[in-house]
Amino acid sequence: MKARRRKLVEKVVKGPARWHRHPETRRQEILEAALVNFAEKGFSATRMNDMARRAGISSGTLYLYFINKEAIFKSLVEESLGTQVSQLTQVMREWEGPSDELLRLVVRTINGFLRSSDRAVLFKLIIAETGNFPELARFYRHHVTDHMLTVFEGIISRGIARGEFRRIDLTDGARMIFSSIMFTAIWRTSLGTLDSESYDYGRFIETKLDLILRGLAP
Amino acid sequence: MKARRRKLVEKVVKGPARWHRHPETRRQEILEAALVNFAEKGFSATRMNDMARRAGISSGTLYLYFINKEAIFKSLVEESLGTQVSQLTQVMREWEGPSDELLRLVVRTINGFLRSSDRAVLFKLIIAETGNFPELARFYRHHVTDHMLTVFEGIISRGIARGEFRRIDLTDGARMIFSSIMFTAIWRTSLGTLDSESYDYGRFIETKLDLILRGLAP
Amino acid sequence: MKARRRKLVEKVVKGPARWHRHPETRRQEILEAALVNFAEKGFSATRMNDMARRAGISSGTLYLYFINKEAIFKSLVEESLGTQVSQLTQVMREWEGPSDELLRLVVRTINGFLRSSDRAVLFKLIIAETGNFPELARFYRHHVTDHMLTVFEGIISRGIARGEFRRIDLTDGARMIFSSIMFTAIWRTSLGTLDSESYDYGRFIETKLDLILRGLAP
Amino acid sequence: MKARRRKLVEKVVKGPARWHRHPETRRQEILEAALVNFAEKGFSATRMNDMARRAGISSGTLYLYFINKEAIFKSLVEESLGTQVSQLTQVMREWEGPSDELLRLVVRTINGFLRSSDRAVLFKLIIAETGNFPELARFYRHHVTDHMLTVFEGIISRGIARGEFRRIDLTDGARMIFSSIMFTAIWRTSLGTLDSESYDYGRFIETKLDLILRGLAP
DNA sequence: TATGAATGAGTCTTCATTCAT
DNA sequence: TATGAATGAAGACTCATTCAT
User: Do residues B194 and A137 touch, judged by C-beta distance below 8 A?
Assistant: First the structure.
């Protein structure tokens, strides 16, 4: 937290000038670095210098790609969505089989994405910074959270319509499913990092799915 | 030499008496103010001045009660535990009735406490600051989360032993229950604040309990 | 230098209210405490609180006797002169014997006073704070150093007139004698404190006197 | 969130180019400025801002060269030693002529160095801050003071061995010589600054040397 | 484009001084 | 008179941002 000491050392021999990568690549590298730093220390405690260092550039260069720290944070949140969520809607629409399998598929897909990418920490970030960046939170809420909830509601609704699930409140049901994913994402990137042995989040999700589906059974 | 001179101007009408209050009261007021500020902006972005203002004192006074900002944060986390969790263990030990009712009781109690006090935001804070305050996170983990998990495991174990629940993995089971509480606490104090109409977290918990208990049925 | 930590402990049981001493006594106690603290840490680094504690009173009470920190420093310098120097002039005026003995007597007397009282540190203080308190330095210069120089000049002048000393520049001669005293005073209260074994300042003065008197011999 | 925004106003005409200077030069400029300020006001009363202003840079830049105020003070003391003192030892070792001339040469050399550079004030500083920086004082004591004393002892010892000086205590003798230099250094940079007309310190030293040498004569 | 030294506003913290008791 | 909690201006230090190179 503390102890940031600079030393004006004697011009460390720099490696040969890195080839100038494609601007977009560079931009992504910055976001990548920012994500790691923000995730670790939060927005305020993250130093532009550290971020630059991690991205392999100098602090000044950051400002060639983003106007300021806030812009980096915003881009991070806004650009990390990609097409993932909308793909889910597609999958759901085309699905022909039983609803419980659809639910399993969707949850596993989301979870897989969160685990493979580092995007899980964005949950944590947004949650921590809601007060400081309400606009951004709103954006995230709209484009990510609500979207997922809609997908889950759709699946439950489908299941009920097909007589596979008992009739429950869609809102609550969707949030239940969502809460599992959120719990995993948050725990893994916060208190879970304190565990010496890694907890099997995949199994947790499976068990929870089982339980939810049992509970949904008519 | 510039011996610091109090500005001899104005003699602004000062706020209410600055003397009366009992030290411990004052201390609690500071923690109260700190909680609100930290919850809203996070540790780094919280200004000591704002905190003081909210507590109705001057910034210097903060330092009569805590040696620095970090100490306030630590006290906040460490002192907010109270006897709540241990009381739960007591309740559990003495319970004679069916395990599902015990589970409902315990979950409702915890939830009630989190809602009535402002302690729910501590979850959010700890999660956001795990990277910056690992020691504190460890403390919280040990004294709060692990404790709750143990309680839940105890209830599930009891239910299984009494034939009320089917045999499931205790660890996963406990985390499922815990995730509901955590989700509620976090959501309410972050993205949930963006909702214009308030979501009924109580009902969510109840619905989720129903679902879990259904899922636990043999 | 650093690390001043306050603790708002629980009303340490104070001893029975000290009897209120005579105001002048109290005043002297404060100056005494101030001298020690200033000597040790200098003007700026001395805390009013420490000073009060050392004087056995509370910080607020200091302000019943002095209007501010500066005033304490000034009083310290101005009041420590006492009648010492003027007594010397008296001694000199009445002296009938040889000038070398007079010089020895005077130097020993001054040295004895400096050693017995803690006034030696005032030299150090004034020297360190000349830039911050030019007025005070001027005062000291006028009332202490110049006074001493005059006395020494008088003795040398007397010695020359009586054929006991060779003819030398009075100004330089007086400063030579003065420099010995000053060196002793300053060294003893600064770098000399680092010595494990105490250096014999008395002997040093005697040896130096011998040398000076030899040098002054016609 | 209040990401710090450079005030976009005015674009005040900035001072001369801020880039050119060599890091080491810059560093020396800071030490130079620090010396002046410390000498004038002492360590505590010196403001980092004033120091920066005097060095022609901004306060933040100070911290690119030194980690904090204390480090500047330390560097000042430690780096100002240079090779001066050790050169003296060399001179002494090679000297073939009479000891009194050697002594004159050495004392004049030291005095000349102290006068030409501003290093004389370091004496004053160290003396004032012994209590606050004992380590530093010890360093100075070891590397400067004791070193000089050793040189003087060597010369006296040489003189005695060659029958040029009478037998006196080396310790006291060396301190006598040293006290002259110290007196000059301290007086000139403290109470001496109050003199309207400048006192001729050079002559004082010469007169004192005469006196000491007379006193040392067999 | 890229760099990183330089800037200076902003923050935490200290402590001389005040004043209700 | 005496106390010491409270105050808030001031100072050390940080770090987002700029800009000469």
Answer: yes
